[in-house]
Amino acid sequence: MSSPLLYIAGMGMITPLGPSVATTVAAVNAGISAYQQSRYTTAAGDAITMAEVPTAIFDDFDAEIDEGESYNEQYDHMIKMAIVALEETCCNQSIEQPIPLVLAMPELDISPAIKHSLLVRNLAKNCAHWISPALTRVCHSGRAAGMECIEFAFKYLCDKYDRILVGGSDSHSDYARLTLLDDMGRLLTIGSADSFAPGEAASFLLLTRHPELAQVRNGHIIKLYQPGIAEEPGHLFSKETYRGEGLDQAFKKAIALHTENRLHSIYSSMNGENHWAKEYGVAYLRNKAAFADPVRVEHPADCYGDLGAATATTLIALAVEHLHSHKNVYKHLVYSSSDTAMRAALIVEKVAV
Asked: What radius of gyration, in Å, describes the C-alpha atoms of the chain?
């Protein structure tokens, strides 16, 4: 029995590089970096290098915002970015009533952020044509959460609904969250080595089980295979020895669903920290036969910073855009690794209609 498939029907995003898929892709392709010294500082007084969406986007935003009991800058950014990305994803679609949304969120406890209920309320208020709290589910697994959302869609939604939204919004613009990272010595500053630039973004994918509803470009559509999901026992917050088993198993599970032809590129959630580069090296070497030689590796966090829970769907959208813009390229592997245990990978493939 063949594995189920979902197809890309729409995409939308806002990142530090631009307020749309097209602007972000163009900036990544040009090697433009959004890294800048921020107003946030470490406990030692060093300015933190971050990648932030321009403040004018938020200041000039026209929306009805439910601020809840305790509103702050991070909440404001996550809500407004999500609205922008959802509008790009759905604005040209013939969606007559709300559809399921599986929302990627930061990891609980280690990544302080907006309560998902407040975020969903605001999305339902400002995107009522597409979003209903009753049809919304949440995955709190951080950088890999977007993949977990897609896995949920495959398992529980794709047989019941013609269209499904998956994606997330995340921001590091919060001292509580930055302090936890500072305590671990992970924040990029002048002179720091093994560190990363915190970012912020929202990105969403509109998925469909029907090829005829998929987005068609240059006579092709994009299909997603079911993600390979695994756990890393020796993750950053574990006392167990790190061996790189989680991402290796995620690669293997994703590749097992599709064995025809070698994969052209790998889209990676690596953010500049050495830990993730070592993890990638283990997973790639153990699965090298599945990839083209040499394989092309993309880690666009070099341009837009670490996007947290918005990472996976942003990477998938970038991989989709690359497939559409390169005539003789047909398959990529996309993966994302969370700070906690979750590791996830999937294959995106371009097919003619």
From this structure: 19
* DSSP collapsed to 3 states, the chain: CCCCEEEEEEEEEEECCECCHHHHHHHHHCCCCCEEEEEEECCCCCEEEEECCCHHHHHCCCCCCCCCCCCCHHHHHHHHHHHHHHHHHHCCCCCCCCCCEEEEECCCCCCCCCCHHHHHHHHHHHCCCCCCHHHEEEEECHHHHHHHHHHHHHHHHCCCCCEEEEEEEEECCCHHHHHHHHHCCCECCCCCCCCECECEEEEEEEEECCHHHCCCECCEEEEEECCEEEECCCCCCCCCCCCCHHHHHHHHHHHHCCCCCCEEEEECCCCCCHHHHHHHHHHHHHCHHHEEEEEEEECCHHHHCECHHHHHHHHHHHHHHHHHHCCCCCEEEEEEECCCCEEEEEEEEEEEC
Contact in structure between 298 and 265 (CB atoms under 8 Å):
yes
Do the domains at 5-213 and 226-352 have one common CATH topology?
A: yes
Tens digit of pLDDT for each residue in 340-350?
999 999 999 99
Q: How confident is the model at residue 1 (pLDDT cuts 50, 70, 90)?
A: very low
* Fold of domain 5-213: Peroxisomal Thiolase; Chain A, domain 1 (3.40.47)
Provide the mean pLDDT of the chain.
Answer: 96
What's the confidence (pLDDT) of residue 260?
A: 73
CATH class entry, domain 226-352? alpha beta
Tens digit of each residue's pLDDT (9 = 90 or more) over 193-241: 899 999 999 999 999 999 999 999 999 999 999 999 999 999 999 989 8
Give the model's pLDDT for residue 2: 61
Give the residue extent of every domain in the chain.
5-213, 226-352
